[in-house]
Amino acid sequence: MQTSETRRRYRTIFVSDIHLGTRGCRADFLLDFLRRTDCERLFLVGDVVDGWRLRKSWYWTAAFDEVLREVLEMARRGVEVTYIPGNHDEMFREWLGLEIAGVRLAREAVHTAADGRRYLVIHGDEFDGVIRYARVLALLGDRAYDWALTLNRLFNAARRRLGYPYWSLSQWLKRQVKEAVKAIDRFEVALAHEAKRRGLDGVICGHIHHAEMRLVQGVAYMNDGDWVESCTALVEHADGRFELVDWAEENRLSFWPEPERRTPAALARTP
């Protein structure tokens, strides 16, 4: 257990696109991040659980349970936890406005930073229509994207055996696709425009698995990335400064052993 002196302290943490229920989810990296950081506020910016994938085939591990327990423990300790469901966990949108075990569910939020600036916090799938369904996952297609993630796992398994840390091959492949790069730019412009229309200073989102911080027409666009490919989080410091944290890169993390799979029956028996 990390002591308070060795834990990183932030005012606010934003994470999204965890995709619990998929083989590509790096729950081990996320657990390491959550257990070595402290914050006053935690925003879960969508696609925490991948309901789409779980409906097709069941895949659940003990590490996924641990992620959920850690979030609930943070809420119990007094961290203000806000959950903004995305398109892959849209089933939780039926509970918007409720607070469950200290976790508040909302369609979107406006976050006021320590310096007084205000940011729209939204998953981002609402803008798929604006960019004509050109988000990266749609461009590559479900099968091609799954293939890229499988290749990513095999590639990093080989790197781990050779003593090398995690490196996202799937992210690199995505950056080589010209149309994917164009789609990302259209997505960023669309969300920044929406924040500007509302009179806000910026937007914080997820959805496209592409961590970024940049100014778009004078508006701050910040995407916290994901925990499938890049293992990144957006954090706010005590003075209102924002920073993207690449946890795998900073800590030279490697793939850990394949976690124990859990069946629905086993989950039902969990106290």
Individual helix count: 9
Order of helices and strands: EHEHHEEEEEHHHHEEEEEHH
Shape: globular
Radius of gyration: 18 Å
* Largest pleated sheet: 7 strands, mixed
Number of strands: 12
Give the CATH superfamily. Metallo-dependent phosphatases
Question: From the coordinates shown, what is the CATH architecture?
Answer: 4-Layer Sandwich
How many angstroms does the end-to-end distance come to? 23 Å
Q: Beta-strand level of the residues, as a percent range?
A: 15-25%
User: Order of strands across the biggest sheet?
Assistant: 4-5-3-2-1-11-12
Tell me, what is the CATH class?
Alpha Beta
Number of domains: 1
On the 0 to 100 scale, the average pLDDT is: 84
**Which ranges are low-confidence, i.e. pLDDT below 50, for 5 or more consecutive residues?**
130-141, 255-259
- Structural class of the helices, strands and pairings? alpha/beta
Organism: Siccirubricoccus deserti
Protein name: UDP-2,3-diacylglucosamine diphosphatase
Keywords: Cell inner membrane, Cell membrane, Manganese, Membrane, Metal-binding
Pfam family, one: Metallophos
What descriptors fit this protein?
Metallo-depent_PP-like; 9 helices; 271 residues; alpha/beta; metal ion binding; UDP-2,3-diacylglucosamine hydrolase activity; Purple Acid Phosphatase, chain A, domain 2; seven-stranded mixed sheet
Explain what this protein looks like in three dimensions.
With 271 residues, this protein is α/β, with parallel strands linked by helices. It has one domain (10-262): Metallo-dependent phosphatases (Purple Acid Phosphatase, chain A, domain 2, 4-Layer Sandwich). It has helices spanning 27-35, 51-56, 62-76, 136-140, 142-161, 169-176, 178-197, 247-251, 264-269; strands at residues 8-15, 37-44, 80-83, 99-100, 103-105, 109-112, 118-121, 202-205, 212-216, 219-223, 232-236, 242-246. Strands 4-5-3-2-1-11-12 form a 7-stranded mixed beta sheet. Strands 6-7-8-10-9 form a 5-stranded mixed beta sheet, with helices on one face. Strand 6 and strand 7 (118-121) form a beta hairpin. The longest helix is centred in the middle third of the chain and has 20 residues, at 142-161. The protein is globular. The two termini are 23 Å apart. Pfam families: Metallophos. This is UDP-2,3-diacylglucosamine diphosphatase. GO terms for molecular function: metal ion binding; UDP-2,3-diacylglucosamine hydrolase activity. Keywords: Cell inner membrane, Cell membrane, Manganese, Membrane, Metal-binding. Residues 11-210 form the Calcineurin-like phosphoesterase domain.
